[in-house]
Amino acid sequence: MMRVSRKLRKWTATILDLPQDVALDLPRITMIGGLQLTVENHRGIVHFSPDTLKLAMDGGEMEVTGRDLVIRNIGAEEVFVEGEILGVQLHSKGKTSG
Amino acid sequence: MKGNWVAYARGYVWVKLIGEGSERFVNAATKEKIDLWHISFTPARELTFGVSIPDFFRMRPLLRESGCRTRIISRHGLPFRLAKLARRKTFAGGMAAFVLALFVLSTLIWDVKVEGNSAIPEEKIRQAARAEGIYGYQWSFRLGDAATLSQRLALRLPEAAWVGVDKRGTSITITVVESTKPEDKALEGPRHLVAKADAVVTRIVAENGRPKVERNDRVRKGDILISGILGDEKNSKHVVSKGKVMGLVWHEYRIESPLQSKTRNLTGETRERNYLIIGNRALQISGYGGEPFGQSQIRATIEKVRLWNKELPFGTMKEHELEVVEIGKKMTPAEAKEVGLAQARAELLAKAGKDATIKAENILHEQTENGKVKLTVLFEVEQSIEVERPIP
Fold first, then answer.
1. CB contact under 8 A, B39 and A48
2. Which of A87, B43, B80, B116 has the lowest tally of Cβ within 10 angstroms?
3. Do B23 and A68 touch (CB under 8 A)?
4. CATH label of the domain that carries residue A88
């Protein structure tokens, strides 16, 4: 059932030429150099330390690595991170991708 | 963190989170829509963040759930400022007192101006205004509105045609328009009009009182022309008689007119002399050379030095000397007679009043002797002959 609705949504997005994040509720990541990072559509914080920030996402996790990370602002939908960002990694459930 | 000033107005605190499970707490806070900002770690690896005061109190149940404790690092914003102010009672009191004093002083009337009066003394207007409550250091809320004030002031000042009261802030301007009054008439007692000379009445107009004579009546000096007593012996009333009586009056004039006349004329030759004045002494500066003219007339102007309003005992004097010649003129007896008569006429008219006219003149006697023409002339003059006499 979930699979059908998901396919339908994907098909609608292709037909109507909509951006995938709107249609599929995927996280949208905006990064300004290595300084600022905005993540929309996250599903909460999994881990936070000055060096790493792990965010939960639909079907996986996202890991931001860096130094002196600061969550400037956090809302139900978006996180605004500042600091010296060194890497962003996406972990799908089960496997790792970079 | 919504705009800086909103956060400032609501007040916010920097909080240090102590304990494990900070991620759980942050997630729970996000779910509850509690706004946290600037979540960061101190070098001692403690989580610090900013949160507004209302959100801080909503946050406390979540803390219990996640097993963390908080410690407030610093407080910011208006609520804390006010609390601090409330602790400094004298300062807060002074601030309130200042505002209060400003308000109280602005409700006072500081200045009362009076404008437009010339005959009514200002002191009287001020007195009337004071009686109506308009004076310096009066509460302005104790005054009525300008319209009623000006009406009541006008009642107190009957000499004024219009009184306006204009209140601007803390000053009041009273504008007065004075009514023009007719001049007071002198009081008059009951009186007759009597003749001031022997005359023949030519015209009589009685405005008030009873005329006693008619046209062409002969009257003697002191006769009553217009009586001020009305009624008969039993019922009588004294009035102020008024009116105009013209009559023919005869004046006899003796005129002596010389055949030789002398006039002093200016030739136009002048000479100027300047003096320096010190005290009551004059030092001649220019115009030396003795007395150049046989007969002369001197006109002097003195100018003293003034220092502000004080006159100093120094100055200059300027003298104009004008040459004068005497011109003698010989006249024929006829000319001398004419000159004499003309002068007599002028004198007569000046004496008899401005509504007098010369009706006739008869030369009774004419004689030329010792270089003079002697004349006796009888003038017949129509003039007003009434004069007032009070009724005792």
1. yes
2. B43
3. no
4. 2.60.40.2000
The reported pLDDT for the residue numbered B3 is: 62
Determine the residue among B1, B22, B38, B40 to mutate to test chain A binding: the one whose Cβ has the most chain A Cβ atoms within 10 Å: B40
d(CA B365, CA B384): 28
ipTM score assigned to the predicted complex: 0.71
Nearest CA distance, B8 vs chain A (angstrom): 17
Class of domain B108-178: alpha beta
Domain limits for position A64: 26-97
Task: In chain B, list all ranges with CATH 3.10.20.310.
Answer: 108-178
- CB contacts, 8 Å: A75 with chain B: 30, 33, 35
Per residue in B27-71, pLDDT tens?
888 888 888 888 888 877 788 899 999 889 888 888 888 888 888
Report, at the CATH architecture level, how domain B4-82 is classified.
2-Layer Sandwich (3.30)
Which residues, 6+ apart, have CB-to-CB distance to B170 below 8 Å?
A: B106, B108, B109, B110, B111, B140
Out of B30, B45, B49, closest to residue A75 by CB: B30
Domain-located, residue A5: no
Helix (H, G, I), strand (E, B) or coil at B319: strand
